[in-house]
Amino acid sequence: MGGKRYIRAVGSEDVSIRITHCGICYADIRYTRNIRGDTKYPLVPGHEIVGVVKEVGENADRFKVGNHVGVGTYLQSCRDCESCKDGNEVFCSDQDKAIFTINGIDLDGKPTKGGYSSFIVAHERYCYEIPEKYLPELAAPLLCAGITVYAPMKRYKMNQPGKSLGIIGLGGLGHMAVKFGKAFELNVTVFGTSISKEEEALTTLGADRFVLSSNEQDMKELAKSLDFVIDTASGNHPFDPYPSLLKTAGIFVLVGAPSEAKINPLNLIMGMRTIAGNAVGSTKVTQEMLDFCAVHGVYPEVEVIPIQYVNEALERLVNRDVKYRFVIDVEHSF
Fold first, then answer.
1. d(CA 17, CA 55)
2. Looking at residue 83, what DSSP letter applies?
3. CB 288 within 8 Å of CB 98
4. N- to C-terminal Cα separation, the chain
5. 3 state DSSP class of 111
6. Are 21 and 330 spatial neighbours (Cβ–Cβ below 8 Å)?
7. How distant is the alpha carbon of residue 150 from its chain centre?
C-alpha cells in the first residue's frame, strides 16, 4: 500500500495537502478486506490525515501554504440539505454529493484516495487547523477515533464534572473516551473482558475503576450508578447488562459497529433510559475538539510506524495488538 498515485485537480475552494501522518482505523480493515461487500477497488485507505498545505485554490481563504491541517472521514457534502445546514455534514442526505475519504467517488468521477499516500486534495470546509505545537502524529487519531467519542460526549452533556461515565472497550476509541472523560472531570469506569486491561485502564489512562464484565457481583453492585455509558467495542458482545447500570434517564451511546445489538426493551422503559448512536462529528465540533485537546493536554497513545509496516500493523489491529493507535509516518517513509 502507499506510493505514487493520481491526484485530482485543485478546485477554486480546495487545498492540496502533502500528507505527513495518517492514523490506522478499523475502517481501513473493513474496506481493504471488503468485509461488508461494498468496497470500490482500487482503494487507498486512511481517514485520519495530517499534513502541510502545498497549494490553495483561488477562492480558498481559510488556509495558507505551509499551514498544518487535518482531513477526516469526509471530503465533501452538498451544503444544502437539512443536515448540512445544521452543521452535521457527515449525515448529508445527498449521497451524490457526500464524498467520503475512503471508498468514495470524488468530484472527477474517480475513486477517492485516502491517507496511505503522499498527497490529498479536499475542499477547505472539510479541513481542520492543527493547533500550534500539537504533534502531527498525535493529531491524526483525533480525526476519527477522537471525534467519534468527543461528539456524543458533548451532544449528551457528558462534560459535567462529577458525573459518572462507563466505557465499554479499551481500544482506539475507548482509550480516547477515558482521556476525554478525565479531562471533563468525570468519574470513569472501564468495562473489559480481560483482567490484563486493568493496569492500562487505571495507571496508563487514569480511569477511576476497572470492572470485568464477566464478574456478575461487580456488575450487580454498579446497578443504577452511572449517568452515561459509551460502548466503543466493535466485536459482538452482550448489551443487556449495561442499560441496567444507568441511573434514571441515563444515556447509552453506541459508537462501535457490532453486527447486531440486542437489548431487552424493559431495561430502557423502566428506567426512562436513552440509547443513541454516533458516527464522527461535524466540521465545527471537530475543530472544537482539536482546540480542546491542545488547551487541556489530551493526547492519544500511539505507535508510529513506516508505511512499509502497514500490512503487519493491520494484522496486529485485527488481533488487538496495539496500544492504542497506529500512525503511519508518511513523510519519512519514502
1. 7
2. H
3. no
4. 12
5. strand
6. yes
7. 9
* Cell matching residue 34: 471488503
Query: Which are the contacts of 31, defined by CB distance < 8 A and separation ≥ 6?
Result: 39, 43, 45, 102, 103
Distance, in Å, from the CA atom of 139 to the CA atom of 304, rounded to the nearest integer, reads 12
Distance CA 176, CA 54 (A): 30
Residue 3: what are its φ and ψ, rounded to 5°?
A: 100, -170
Residue pLDDT tens, the chain, 334 long: 444 455 788 999 999 999 999 999 999 999 999 988 999 999 999 999 999 999 999 999 999 999 999 999 999 999 999 999 988 898 999 988 899 999 999 988 889 999 999 999 999 999 999 999 999 999 999 999 999 999 999 999 999 999 999 999 999 999 999 999 999 999 999 999 889 889 999 999 999 999 999 898 999 999 999 999 999 988 788 888 899 999 999 999 999 877 788 888 888 998 999 999 998 999 999 999 999 999 999 999 999 999 999 999 999 999 989 999 999 999 998 7
Identity of the residue numbered 153: M
Confirm whether pTM is higher than 0.70.
Answer: yes
Number of residues in the chain? 334
Closest CA to 121 of 113, 131, 129: 113
Helix, strand or coil, per DSSP, at residue 275: strand
Task: Give strand ranges (E) for the chain.
Answer: 14-23, 49-56, 68-71, 74-76, 99-100, 119-123, 127-129, 164-168, 187-192, 209-212, 226-231, 246-254, 274-277, 302-305, 325-329
User: Beta-carbon neighbour count of residue 193 at 10 Å?
Assistant: 15
Sequence-separated contacts (24+) of 81-85 with Cβ below 8 Å: none
Q: Are 248 and 227 in contact (CB under 8 A)?
A: no
- Contact in structure between 142 and 170 (CB atoms under 8 Å): no
What is the DSSP-derived secondary structure letter of residue 302? E
Could you write out the DSSP letters of every residue in 150-206? HHHHHHTTTT-TT-EEEEE--SHHHHHHHHHHHHTT-EEEEEES-GGGHHIIIIIS-
